Amino acid sequence: MTDTDISSDLQQQVEQAYASKSALRIQGGESKQFYGRRVAGEALDVSQHQGIINYEPTELVITARAGTPLKELEQVLSDNNQMFGFEPPAFGESATLGGTIACNLSGPRRAFAGSARDFVLGSRIINGKGESLHFGGEVMKNVAGYDVSRLMCGAMGTLGVLLEVSVKVLPRHETEVTVVHELGVADSLKKVHDLAIRSLPISATRFDDNALHIRISGTEGAVLAAQKAVGGEVLETGNDFWRRLKEQQSGFFKTESPVWRLSLASNSPVLNTDGRILYEWNGAQRWLISRESAGSIRDEVSLYGGHAVCFRNCPEQVQVFHPLDSGLLKIHKQLKQAFDPGSILNPGQMYADI
Asked: What does the pLDDT read at residue 344?
């Protein structure tokens, strides 16, 4: 694995951009270029800032530089029978740790183990003035006050350039099995919620095309017992099935129409929208393929306290992220001002005026 520290070069470039009031477009592996609004500015390439800084398997924490390829980290963890608990999607061979955390993307296991944000323990960043700042650490309880490291999760580089990230990891499960039920959407949602209150070792669910897929993970004894309780037919290609879902390589995602990510309470009813829907996370994440207007989709999701993001194939005139109310917008602007007073880091990546 490459071990290259270019933090001084990156810091100098940010300092110069701040002095000249020039916008910077942070880039790593560029595997997620499709996500978010387009950013104009000079490239700040973090992809060569690579290497594991600290990893002691018995401590269940890994600290690595932001440009470290995600697949290399996952291989190191796998060699030690460990894994990232939030099952991050890569969306490409070039995906990096920094991009994964900056986008706060999580895979099928998220609803049962936690999101990327939940596993971040500490980080080192360069703020918009070119200052190197360190937050958090490598243990769960090490500091009081604001959890700034987790604030970087999902900020998409608008608050700082990620240099290093410390992430809690988990032991790999002894075994996994995937079962399938032929059910309609209402019956599928009812079943996963009924199962959720039984403390079964379920680690993923998916429903579409009248098929409910459920993944069970744990020790052999626990999985066998849970399989009897869950029922259904065993899917022999379960590992590949969930990998393709995580990476959006299954047939559902092969479309040129807008792909919307809907986030709402898992017990929300079937939505009144036009298009195809795939359900994950017991119904809390729903992928919608639709050419319906953004306003109509967001109005429907808002009825249940949710929000909608245009994840892929987003028309230029559509706001990618769900509009913020005045209170949240004020907080976002205050955070931007505190971390990036010159507004040079990925300006407009999430919202036009931030």
From this structure: 98
Q: Which two tokens stand for residue 183?
A: 């059910």
pLDDT along the chain (354 residues), means of 10: 94 98 97 95 97 97 98 98 98 98 97 97 97 80 69 97 98 98 96 95 97 98 97 97 98 97 96 96 98 97 97 95 96 96 97 89
For position 139, what pLDDT does the model report? 57
Contact 107/89 with Cβ under 8 angstroms? Answer: yes
Look-up: residue for tokens 């009813």?
269
Answer whether residue 324 is part of any domain: no
263 and 139 within one domain? no
Q: Is residue 287 part of a domain?
A: yes
Provide the domain count of the chain. Answer: 3
- The verdict on 48 and 150 lying in the same domain is yes
> Do 265 and 146 have their domain in common?
no
- The CATH number covering residue 90 comes to 3.30.465.10
In a domain, 82, yes or no: yes
End-to-end CA distance of the chain: 37
- The residue range of the domain holding 19 is 7-171
Dihedral over Cα of 39, 42, 43, 49: its sign: negative
pLDDT of residue 76: 98
- Any domain includes 340: no
pTM for the whole structure:
0.94
Q: 202 with 178: CB under 8 angstroms?
A: no
Same domain, 32 and 109: yes
Helix, strand, or coil (residue 67): coil
Distance CA 285, CA 262 (A): 6
Q: Which positions ≥6 away from 150 have C-beta within 8 Å? A: 117, 120
Q: What are phi and psi of 30, to 5 degrees?
A: 60, 25
Please report the pLDDT score of residue 147 as a whole number: 82
Residues 16 and 162 in one domain: yes
CB atoms within 10 A of CB 157: 28
Instruction: Tell me the two tokens of residue 10.
Output: 């990156």
- Spell out the SS3 assignment of 206-254: EEECCEEEEEEEECHHHHHHHHHHHCCEECCCHHHHHHHHHCCCCHHHC
Residue 144's region, left for phi above 0, alpha for psi from -120 to 50, else beta, is beta
pLDDT confidence of residue 342: 97
